[in-house]
Design a protein that fits this description.
This protein has 375 residues and is of the alpha/beta class. The protein folds into 3 domains: 147 residues, Alpha-D-Glucose-1,6-Bisphosphate, Chain A, domain 3 (3-Layer(aba) Sandwich); 88 residues, 3-Layer(aba) Sandwich (Alpha-D-Glucose-1,6-Bisphosphate, Chain A, domain 3), CATH 3.40.120; 109 residues, Alpha-D-Glucose-1,6-Bisphosphate, Chain A, domain 3 (3-Layer(aba) Sandwich), CATH 3.40.120. Helix content is 39%, strand content 18%. The strands form 3 sheets. It has a 7-stranded mixed sheet with strand order 1-2-6-5-3-4-7, with helices on both faces. Strand 3, helix 2 and strand 4 form a beta-alpha-beta unit. Helix 5 packs across helix 6. The chain is globular.
Length: 375
């Protein structure tokens, strides 16, 4: 089925060309109607990156959601993963990220998340598309049932704490010099602050957004600035994000880029050693290098390829975990949980494996790996 609005990652196009206020208004109304379930007061959280057009689209979305009776909580500039996490944490019925990711400033987009914090399925997106082309006038809220909108404070600190809780409790990056390039985008505040709170000596670049310079000669699409700064500051590691901070490029201490497939291989191998892989393998896309697959096979780790798109990888990964869950203990299934520490712990308890239970509370990231080698 050819879809009119949604692509592989939400609705995206030229701001005020494809992504117009009219389209954003309809998207807000349609998504609001699809996710109005029950008699409770419904709410939506909306985040955005730093593009100038974000103001226009945000205002139109607010009008759309409030017109169908949903309250709107405005987060301001926040990374896409933050919007997904806060959607669930704040018990919102739907989350929205206004961003065109790594595209130039004159593009923009609308990404939607369900109440579980995950991207929407094709079936749900099709329902929204159908409503967007329909007459929704008779389904609008009555005057006394219109939604309210407000900007909320403290969400940056809240997300930083949520992100830090995914790391080992006693992790310290003390003595580690980290260059972080935020692409003048959504993470320009939270990423440097999070690394600093973990103890790193932070050198931040790409943190002066002006509405036009997002992804411009900086960030993950132009990592040359990151590599130069790593060499200049003699840093231990460099991290470059894109405009909405849902992709990353890593540079080593010499200012050399680490290929994404190499990064996958290092993480997979380390997680396998720490018993963090609930099944011996990882999920990637059809774009991944054959060398990665062969390297993983040499380590007895399988590699599952999916079509490009975050939803595809999620579906394959969750199905994989579900099969593993049933295999662990058919009569006492382990609850699927996104926090891999709890998942590993519950699998360990079901197996009676104390070593794996302890491993479940460990987490490996490129920064932790660099910190360990630095120590």
């Amino acid at each position: 089925m050819v879809r009119k609005y949604f692509g592989t990652d939400g609705i995206r196009g030229r701001a005020n060309g494809v992504i117009t206020p009219e389209l954003a208004l309809k998207a807000g109304q349609a998504a609001g109607l699809v996710f109005r379930r029950g008699d409770h007061r419904h709410r939506v959280v909306i985040g955005k990156d730093t593009r100038l057009s974000g103001y226009m689209i945000e205002t139109a979305l607010v009008a759309g959601f409030t017109s169908v009776g949903m309250d709107v909580l405005l987060l301001g500039p926040m990374p896409t993963p933050a919007v997904a996490m806060l959607t669930r944490s704040m018990r919102a019925d739907i989350g929205v990220m206004i961003s065109a990711s790594h595209n130039p400033y004159d593009d923009n987009g609308i990404k939607l998340f369900g109440p579980d914090g995950y991207k929407l399925s094709d079936a749900v997106e099709n329902k929204i598309e159908t409503l967007m082309d329909a007459d929704m006038t008779k389904r609008l809220a009555k005057s006394a049932e219109l939604g309210r909108a407000k900007r909320i404070d403290g969400v940056h600190d809240r997300y930083i704490e949520l992100a830090k809780r995914t790391m080992p409790r006693n992790l310290s990056l003390d003595g580690l010099r980290v260059v972080i390039d935020c692409a003048n985008g959504a993470a320009y505040r939270v990423a440097p602050d999070a690394l600093w709170e973990l103890g790193a000596d932070v050198v931040a670049i790409g943190v002066e957004p002006d509405g036009f310079n997002i992804n411009q000669d900086c960030g993950s699409t132009a990592p040359e600035a990151l590599c130069r700064k790593v060499r200049e500051m003699r840093a231990d590691i460099g991290i470059a994000l894109d405009g909405d901070a849902d992709r990353v490029v890593i540079a080593d201490e010499r200012g050399h880029l680490v290929d994404g497939d190499q990064l996958l291989a290092v993480i997979a191998e380390s997680w396998a050693e720490d018993h963090l892989l609930t099944k011996p393998g990882i999920v990637g896309t059809v774009m991944s290098n054959l060398a990665l697959e062969r390297h993983l096979q040499s380590l007895d780790l399988s590699f599952i390829r999916t079509p490009v798109g975050p939803l595809c990888a999620r579906i394959y990964a969750r199905a994989w975990l579900q099969r593993r869950r049933r295999a662990v203990r058919p009569h006492h299934p382990v609850e699927l949980h996104d926090d891999r520490r709890r998942l590993c712990r519950r699998i360990a308890i079901a197996r009676g494996d104390q070593e794996e239970e302890q491993a479940g509370f460990r987490s490996l990231s490129p920064v932790r790996a660099a910190a360990a080698s630095h120590a």
